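User: Before I run my own analysis I want an independent prediction to cross-check against. Here's the chain; please return only the structure tokens and, at the end, one sentence I can use as a sanity check.
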Amino acid sequence: MLAVSRFTSAAPPAEVAELAAALLATWAQRPGFRGGELAHGLDDDTSWVLLTRWDGVGHYRRALSAADARVAAHALLAHARAEEGAFAVVLRRGEGPARTGAP
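Assistant: Structure tokens:
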């Protein structure tokens, strides 16, 4: 599954990247974490997205509720947009064989 967190931050990009690196390092210690990426908006320099991949929604939700992850996530995601963030992958191409599946 994919978790997408879109947020706005006027902090310098290096600071946002440092916070994201700390959060991803925390999540990397959790079962089911597959990896993550931080991306910066090309048209709006205050727009960010944190994309993470998990074995399943249960792993993701347990990782979010862990105390150390809540602390690490707070500074980064305090300004997250209120929108759907968890998605089931139904098609993948590019990183290994193409896969399809129902949610």
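Sanity check: The chain has a mean pLDDT of 88.
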